[in-house]
Amino acid sequence: GGRRVFSPAGEFREFSRRQLRDMERLFRQYDAGKDGFIDLMELKLMMEKLGAPQTHLGLKNMIKEVDEDLDSKLSFREFLLIFRKAAAGELQEDSGLHALARLSEIDVSTEGVKGAKNFFEAKAQAINEASRFEEEIKAEQEEKKKQAEELKQRKAAFKELQSTFTQ
To answer: Which helix (H) or strand (E) holds 6?
Structure first.
Protein backbone atom coordinates (compact mmCIF):
# COMPACT_ATOMS: atom_id res chain seq x y z
CA GLY A 1 0.00 0.00 0.00
CA GLY A 2 0.92 3.66 -0.04
CA ARG A 3 3.37 4.67 2.65
CA ARG A 4 1.56 6.66 5.27
CA VAL A 5 3.56 9.33 6.98
CA PHE A 6 4.20 7.98 10.45
CA SER A 7 3.22 10.36 13.21
CA PRO A 8 4.63 9.16 16.54
CA ALA A 9 2.51 11.50 18.66
CA GLY A 10 -0.60 10.43 16.77
CA GLU A 11 -0.02 6.72 17.03
CA PHE A 12 1.77 6.46 20.37
CA ARG A 13 -0.55 8.62 22.42
CA GLU A 14 0.35 6.84 25.63
CA PHE A 15 3.74 8.59 25.63
CA SER A 16 4.35 12.23 26.37
CA ARG A 17 6.00 14.39 23.71
CA ARG A 18 9.07 14.48 25.92
CA GLN A 19 9.27 10.70 26.06
CA LEU A 20 8.86 10.49 22.28
CA ARG A 21 11.63 13.07 21.83
CA ASP A 22 13.90 11.08 24.15
CA MET A 23 13.17 7.88 22.21
CA GLU A 24 13.86 9.60 18.92
CA ARG A 25 17.15 10.96 20.25
CA LEU A 26 18.13 7.48 21.40
CA PHE A 27 17.14 6.00 18.05
CA ARG A 28 19.17 8.56 16.08
CA GLN A 29 22.12 8.10 18.40
CA TYR A 30 22.39 4.41 17.48
CA ASP A 31 21.31 4.67 13.85
CA ALA A 32 24.96 4.86 12.85
CA GLY A 33 24.24 4.46 9.14
CA LYS A 34 21.72 7.35 9.38
CA ASP A 35 19.36 5.41 7.12
CA GLY A 36 16.40 5.64 9.50
CA PHE A 37 16.84 2.05 10.68
CA ILE A 38 18.71 0.26 13.43
CA ASP A 39 20.06 -2.92 11.90
CA LEU A 40 21.51 -5.95 13.61
CA MET A 41 25.05 -4.52 13.91
CA GLU A 42 23.77 -1.19 15.19
CA LEU A 43 21.58 -2.98 17.72
CA LYS A 44 24.57 -5.11 18.78
CA LEU A 45 26.58 -1.95 19.41
CA MET A 46 23.66 -0.33 21.21
CA MET A 47 23.23 -3.26 23.60
CA GLU A 48 26.98 -3.30 24.29
CA LYS A 49 26.93 0.43 25.03
CA LEU A 50 23.92 -0.05 27.32
CA GLY A 51 25.88 -2.72 29.16
CA ALA A 52 23.73 -5.69 28.16
CA PRO A 53 25.56 -7.37 25.28
CA GLN A 54 23.47 -9.94 23.40
CA THR A 55 24.30 -13.04 21.42
CA HIS A 56 23.71 -12.95 17.69
CA LEU A 57 20.60 -15.05 18.19
CA GLY A 58 19.48 -12.79 21.04
CA LEU A 59 19.76 -9.76 18.79
CA LYS A 60 17.83 -11.50 16.01
CA ASN A 61 15.07 -12.38 18.46
CA MET A 62 14.91 -8.80 19.74
CA ILE A 63 14.33 -7.53 16.24
CA LYS A 64 11.89 -10.33 15.45
CA GLU A 65 9.69 -9.41 18.38
CA VAL A 66 8.80 -5.97 16.99
CA ASP A 67 9.74 -6.30 13.32
CA GLU A 68 6.30 -5.85 11.78
CA ASP A 69 7.43 -5.51 8.17
CA LEU A 70 9.93 -8.39 8.50
CA ASP A 71 12.87 -6.48 7.05
CA SER A 72 15.14 -7.65 9.91
CA LYS A 73 15.86 -4.13 11.12
CA LEU A 74 14.09 -1.64 13.32
CA SER A 75 12.34 1.40 11.95
CA PHE A 76 11.67 4.23 14.42
CA ARG A 77 8.08 3.05 14.67
CA GLU A 78 9.16 -0.52 15.51
CA PHE A 79 11.65 0.93 17.98
CA LEU A 80 8.76 2.72 19.71
CA LEU A 81 6.87 -0.59 19.88
CA ILE A 82 9.61 -1.82 22.23
CA PHE A 83 8.71 0.92 24.70
CA ARG A 84 5.00 0.38 24.22
CA LYS A 85 5.44 -3.30 25.06
CA ALA A 86 7.68 -2.39 27.99
CA ALA A 87 5.11 0.05 29.34
CA ALA A 88 2.36 -2.51 28.92
CA GLY A 89 4.46 -5.14 30.73
CA GLU A 90 4.53 -7.37 27.66
CA LEU A 91 8.28 -8.02 27.58
CA GLN A 92 9.91 -11.09 29.12
CA GLU A 93 12.03 -10.02 32.10
CA ASP A 94 15.07 -11.76 30.65
CA SER A 95 14.61 -10.58 27.06
CA GLY A 96 16.99 -8.25 25.30
CA LEU A 97 14.14 -5.84 24.59
CA HIS A 98 13.35 -5.63 28.28
CA ALA A 99 17.00 -4.81 28.97
CA LEU A 100 17.02 -2.24 26.19
CA ALA A 101 13.91 -0.50 27.49
CA ARG A 102 15.16 -0.55 31.07
CA LEU A 103 18.74 0.53 30.38
CA SER A 104 17.83 3.23 27.89
CA GLU A 105 16.72 5.27 30.93
CA ILE A 106 13.63 6.44 29.14
CA ASP A 107 11.14 6.16 31.92
CA VAL A 108 7.91 4.75 30.57
CA SER A 109 6.84 3.44 33.96
CA THR A 110 6.24 6.72 35.79
CA GLU A 111 3.73 7.61 33.13
CA GLY A 112 2.15 4.21 33.81
CA VAL A 113 -1.13 5.06 35.44
CA LYS A 114 -1.23 8.52 33.97
CA GLY A 115 -0.24 7.12 30.61
CA ALA A 116 -3.07 4.62 30.64
CA LYS A 117 -5.43 7.36 31.75
CA ASN A 118 -4.19 9.63 28.97
CA PHE A 119 -4.51 6.80 26.53
CA PHE A 120 -8.16 6.29 27.42
CA GLU A 121 -8.75 10.03 27.51
CA ALA A 122 -7.20 10.29 24.08
CA LYS A 123 -9.50 7.51 22.90
CA ALA A 124 -12.53 9.19 24.44
CA GLN A 125 -11.46 12.46 22.89
CA ALA A 126 -11.12 10.83 19.47
CA ILE A 127 -14.64 9.46 19.83
CA ASN A 128 -15.91 12.88 20.89
CA GLU A 129 -14.15 14.48 17.96
CA ALA A 130 -15.81 12.01 15.61
CA SER A 131 -19.28 12.72 16.97
CA ARG A 132 -18.57 16.44 17.00
CA PHE A 133 -17.61 16.14 13.36
CA GLU A 134 -20.93 14.42 12.64
CA GLU A 135 -22.77 17.13 14.51
CA GLU A 136 -21.02 19.78 12.46
CA ILE A 137 -22.06 18.04 9.25
CA LYS A 138 -25.64 17.83 10.52
CA ALA A 139 -25.59 21.49 11.46
CA GLU A 140 -24.28 22.34 8.00
CA GLN A 141 -27.03 20.35 6.35
CA GLU A 142 -29.64 22.03 8.54
CA GLU A 143 -28.18 25.40 7.62
CA LYS A 144 -28.33 24.54 3.91
CA LYS A 145 -31.95 23.42 4.26
CA LYS A 146 -32.82 26.61 6.08
CA GLN A 147 -31.17 28.71 3.40
CA ALA A 148 -32.98 26.83 0.64
CA GLU A 149 -36.22 27.32 2.54
CA GLU A 150 -35.60 31.05 2.94
CA LEU A 151 -34.69 31.37 -0.71
CA LYS A 152 -37.96 29.69 -1.67
CA GLN A 153 -39.90 32.05 0.56
CA ARG A 154 -38.06 35.07 -0.80
CA LYS A 155 -38.84 33.96 -4.34
CA ALA A 156 -42.47 33.47 -3.43
CA ALA A 157 -42.61 36.89 -1.78
CA PHE A 158 -40.93 38.42 -4.79
CA LYS A 159 -43.48 36.81 -7.10
CA GLU A 160 -46.27 38.16 -4.95
CA LEU A 161 -44.65 41.58 -5.02
CA GLN A 162 -44.41 41.39 -8.81
CA SER A 163 -48.01 40.42 -9.15
CA THR A 164 -49.12 43.44 -7.07
CA PHE A 165 -47.12 45.68 -9.42
CA THR A 166 -48.36 44.15 -12.64
CA GLN A 167 -52.03 44.61 -11.83
So the answer is: none
Which region holds residue 70: left if phi is over 0, alpha if psi is between -120 and 50, else beta?
left
pTM of the full predicted structure? 0.63
pLDDT tens-digit map of 28-61: 999 999 999 999 999 999 999 999 999 999 999 9
Coil/strand/helix, residue 48: helix
Q: How far apart are CA 89 and CA 5, in angstroms?
A: 28
154 CA to centre of own chain: 50
Q: Give the contacts of 10 (CB within 8 A, at least 6 positions apart).
A: none
Of 28, 21, 64, which is closest to residue 46 (Cα–Cα)?
A: 28
User: Which CATH number does 8-104 carry?
Assistant: 1.10.238.10
